[in-house]
Design brief:
Layout: E1 10-12, E2 14-19, E3 24-31, E4 38-50, E5 53-60, E6 71-84, E7 90-102, E8 105-114, E9 123-125, H1 127-130, E10 135-137, H2 151-174
Parallel strand pairs: 1-10, 3-9, 4-8
Antiparallel strand pairs: 2-3, 4-5, 4-9, 5-6, 6-7, 7-8
């Protein structure tokens, strides 16, 4: 009998995901089989009660390096879990269950909420999150593409680009194209920031 794992779709070491329950259309995740479960970067986590059930409200910073860009979300609290990182540091994290969408598949995943501001990706998917669903090719990334939100947005950009190219061609023919004239540009310094690798990627309980 052929191994059923041979027919599983392949996922890269990093992929764009969608979290529909939390209002996040696109977030980059690291696919790490060295970690056990999933983890999401969240801040300002607040616990509250509703209809005799416990929930958590939190900010999701889905764009890397953009602290002021976030989605305020809430989900029912499953439990609190102690997670040990690869350097031996332990933290007590809230755990929620939410749907993940990637490569045309959607399924519920247990996710811990933690500060991942120093990590290379805002989310991490561990082996239990993808078990029986995907095979991981660590030499590839973004197999699912960039998750363009809507076709209309892509068409709008294409139309605008086409119009700009047409106008530029007309200017060149008439000799009024200023874009070909030399211009002076200033120089500026850009601050470089180093991002740490996922320190908890080998945690036995994550």
């Amino acid at each position: 009998m052929p191994d059923s794992k041979l027919y599983l779709p392949v996922i890269g070491a990093r992929e764009w995901l969608c979290l529909p329950d939390l209002g996040v259309r696109r977030i980059k995740a690291k696919i790490d089989t060295g970690a056990q479960n999933a983890c999401l970067h969240a801040s300002k986590v607040e616990e509250f009660e509703r209809n005799r059930r416990t929930y958590v409200r939190f900010n999701i910073h889905f764009k890397q390096h953009f602290r002021k860009t976030f989605v305020r979300a809430e989900a029912e609290l499953l439990e609190y879990r102690v997670v040990r990182s690869s350097n031996g540091h332990t933290t007590r994290r809230p755990v929620i269950v939410t749907h993940v969408e990637v490569l045309g598949k959607s399924w519920p995943v247990e996710v811990t909420l933690a500060d991942r501001s120093t990590m290379s990706c805002r989310m991490l998917l561990g082996r239990e999150s993808i078990r029986g669903r995907f095979l991981v090719d660590v030499d590839r990334a973004l197999i699912g593409g960039t998750l363009t939100p809507t076709n209309s947005s892509r068409s709008s950009r294409s139309t605008e680009a086409s119009g700009t190219a047409s106008d530029t061609k007309k200017k060149r023919l008439s000799g009024t194209d200023d874009s070909q004239r030399p211009t002076k540009t200033g120089t500026g310094k850009r601050k470089a920031s180093r991002r740490k690798s996922d320190g908890d990627s080998t945690a036995a309980t994550e």
